Amino acid sequence: MKSKTLISAACVLSLLLASGTCALAQEHRPAHFRGVLNDYSPANVKGGPWEMHGQWSFDLHGESDIGDFYADMTMSDYGSSGGVADATMGGQNAHTHHIRLTNMRVTWNMTGCPTFSPATTMGFQVNGTVSLVTGNGRNAPFESNPPSSTLQVCITGGSEVPYSNLTMVFGGLATTHFGPQAIHGVVRKTSDSNREVGR
What is the DSSP letter of 173? Predict the structure, then answer.
């Protein structure tokens, strides 16, 4: 009787382990994510506060766990009234940025990612030196050539929408323009669905 119980338990355990491995393998198949970002820089960066709007995409290349991140954004600041930034005078000093973080290994956890309220509970990230940061189509004036700034990109979510949030956090020279804080965006579509996320 004991041997039958042990064999049954071993079978159940091996099935659970196998299904977990299958789920993990499916999670690492090629995927495409895209969305938009909308945020503000801190007021203490040069020319700030900047209003930031753009679109982004992330391509996961499957079992290699390698991904490419692309963001294209516009930024503009405010005019001032009496030396104080005036939100009614937006759209000053408009310019564009193209940001690339390519051929980066995916980390399948949220360790070190910015937090949210309510909290996100699952996700992944890529970290590394940017391959491109432009300003109006040229090397950004705040960036070295080749680029030396770093970027952390986290794509996270919860039980209802597993991939709902995007954050970008710069390090190095780029923080003088974008700031060191998280820049927030939303996931609008994944390759797993023909519908937009959350609909």
Answer: G
Measured CA to CA, the distance from residue 89 to residue 122 in angstroms comes to 40
Q: Alpha-carbon torsion 124, 128, 132, 135, what sign?
A: positive
Q: What's the confidence (pLDDT) of residue 21?
A: 29
pLDDT of residue 106: 95
Q: What's the confidence (pLDDT) of residue 43? A: 87
DSSP for 82-131, written as a single string: TTEEEGGG--EEEEEEEEEEEEEEEESS-TTPPP-SSPP-EEEEEEEE-S
Q: What's the one-letter identity of residue 90? A: G
Single-letter amino acid code for the residue at 5: T
Distance between CA atoms of residues 192 and 78, nearest Å: 40
Beta pairing, strands 92-107 & 132-135: antiparallel
pLDDT of residue 26: 45
Q: Which residues of the chain have pLDDT under 50?
A: 1-26, 194-195, 199
Q: What is the pLDDT of residue 77?
A: 86
Here the tokens at position 57 are: 């995409």
Residue with the two structure tokens 């564009």 = 96
Query: So where are the chain's domains?
Result: 31-190
Q: Is the pTM of this model over 0.85?
A: no
Distance separating alpha carbons of residues 81 and 12, to the nearest angstrom = 70
Radius of gyration of the chain (CA): 21
**What is the Cα–Cα distance from 156 to 113, expressed in whole angstroms?**
9
